[in-house]
């Protein structure tokens, strides 16, 4: 069992907590000849593929290294500009390593705000009144399970497609939230959750689920 991450969305649609637990690395290294047959672009402080996906390198993947030299922003470790390197014919062949970029905090906030109206839309599309909204989404590479409390707070867990028992995991996370966040006198509703005990307990829970399954929850 693999759990990729946990998200908590407030009743107003804001992301108040996220935890990346077991995000798989997706990296591909390939030697290219001149001219480079994929198009790169600098955006959001990283060099990304915008056209010409091939051999496991997809649009949206970011450039991680050039000839083994790590890339930070648009420069290599020795201070050379990435675009100057790939545009000069004499530098070829070039070994380029690409990988899937991890979502930034701002990107996660945007995703959470997008999930909120989708959840509401699913409730309205239901032919039966008082639908619970989205509880489970299944794709070829992941499964998303959602549990909404009576107060409208949504707990979301993203797992591998074959994992069973996500509902039990969500309810245990809700119990931890009640114990360590709601009972914290310094915590205010709708505000981001910053509690070390909650972080530690959540990590322990997810590790237990991955090792032993959900039967003992």
TrEMBL record:
Core component of the TRAPP complexes which has a function of guanine nucleotide exchange factor activity for Rab1 GTPase. Plays a role in vesicular transport from endoplasmic reticulum to Golgi and autophagy. May play a role in dendrite postsynaptic membrane trafficking. GO terms for biological process: endoplasmic reticulum to Golgi vesicle-mediated transport. Belongs to the TRAPP small subunits family. TRAPPC4 subfamily. Pfam families: Sybindin. It comes from Papilio machaon (Old World swallowtail butterfly). InterPro entries: Longin-like_dom_sf, TRAPPC. Component of the multisubunit TRAPP (transport protein particle) complex, which includes at least TRAPPC2, TRAPPC2L, TRAPPC3, TRAPPC3L, TRAPPC4, TRAPPC5, TRAPPC8, TRAPPC9, TRAPPC10, TRAPPC11 and TRAPPC12. Interacts with SDC2. This is Trafficking protein particle complex subunit. SMART domains: Sybindin (SM01399). One of its GO terms (cellular component) is Golgi apparatus. It comes from the Eukaryota. The lineage of its organism: Eukaryota, Metazoa, Ecdysozoa, Arthropoda, Hexapoda. The keyword Transport applies. Keywords: Endoplasmic reticulum, ER-Golgi transport, Golgi apparatus, Transport. It is found in: Endoplasmic reticulum; Golgi apparatus, cis-Golgi network; Golgi apparatus.
């Amino acid at each position: 069992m693999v759990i990729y991450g946990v998200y908590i969305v407030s009743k107003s649609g804001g992301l108040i907590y996220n935890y990346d637990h077991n995000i798989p690395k997706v990296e591909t290294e390939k030697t290219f000849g001149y001219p480079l047959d994929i198009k790169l672009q600098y955006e959001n402080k990283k060099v990304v593929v915008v056209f010409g996906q091939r051999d496991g390198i997809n649009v949206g993947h970011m450039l991680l290294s050039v000839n083994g030299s790590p890339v930070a922003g648009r420069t290599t470790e020795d201070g050379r500009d990435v675009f100057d390197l790939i545009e000069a014919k004499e530098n070829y062949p070039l070994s380029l390593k690409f990988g899937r970029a991890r979502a930034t905090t701002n990107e996660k906030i945007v995703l959470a705000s997008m999930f909120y109206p989708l959840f509401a839309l699913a409730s309205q599309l239901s032919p039966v009144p008082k639908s619970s909204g989205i509880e489970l989404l299944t794709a070829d590479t992941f499964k998303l399970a959602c549990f909404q409390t009576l107060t409208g707070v949504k707990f979301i867990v993203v797992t591998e497609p074959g994992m069973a028992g996500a509902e039990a995991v969500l309810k245990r996370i809700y119990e931890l939230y009640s114990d360590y966040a709601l009972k914290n006198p310094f915590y205010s509703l709708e505000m981001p959750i910053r509690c070390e005990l909650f972080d530690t307990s959540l990590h322990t829970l997810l590790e237990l689920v991955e090792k032993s399954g959900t039967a003992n929850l």
